[in-house]
Amino acid sequence: MKRIHFTAEDLARTRVATTIGVAAETFDTVKLLKDRDASLVFRRWHLSVRGRVGQQAGPLAALMPMRGPLIDATSLMGDTASIDEAVDNLMAAPRALMRLELENLDLHPTHRSWARNLMDGDRETRRQVATALRACHSVTVAPYWSRVRSHLSEVRAGYASTMADGGVEQLLTALCGPLVRWRPPVLEVAHTHDADVHLNGRGLVIAPTMFSTQQVNLLYPPLDPGRAPVLAVPTLSGTSLDTALWEGAESTAPSLDELLGRTRAAVLRAAVGGCGTTELARRLHISPATASHHATTLRNARLISTRREGKAVLHTVTSLGIALLEQSLPA
Prior knowledge:
about 325 residues, alpha/beta, four-stranded mixed β-sheet
């Protein structure tokens, strides 16, 4: 049991987020593929991806501990929804952070020497992990990401609505179930390790997860002790999810390319979760002017919305855009 102790200041600083990041979700899919007792809601997903994650994803499997917690991919690669940005964060992660995340993992003996190279800052070993992350993500997460992101956004909106109606304590009470219990001023979280966690005025970030199904996890930023930890809360259990989430994923992208054009469709996909014009250009290897032109066209079609944040603008996909991304159109 982990007991998270809140003060009035912690309650005031608690907020909600949409995702723990695509990198962390990808790592969770590797564990989920190894879990023969996974929830029935993932059965169709299992059937779709099983056998398609080849040896190129091996470095991620090598980082799966025999027991105990997984590597904290959110701390290493951020909570970004972009796999490209996550990989950039991995390659730039401080060696001290890499060591903190890896040194206590209970890895298989055959993988410990390789993991030691990773801890020591070997660039080639990092590139192997980055390549594996992209390969696994392309099979286990990317075909479903627009729907997953939409689901997580709806859960976050529910969290925010609960907070707006009844405050943070109402949200903490609403989280209660087999894994969580709110006993003011302590949030008790079912966990294999017993610990008392004092937030000390940092607050807490509550984020829903899709592929993490075993337990609620508390994620710490080890090199930034003043930053709020993240409570990663699984959103799926039993048969609670409409399994249509996993349907038609492979046919959506080609049809969308035909409908909008390849580049414009790529801009729409990249804007899921929010993205600036410069970042759109970088991700898609196009000029900022081209990215701006396509964003304007999509905005005029009410598929994205744009708002200004300081000197930059942020493009996000509208509900109409999400529906289009989710729809399985004839090829």
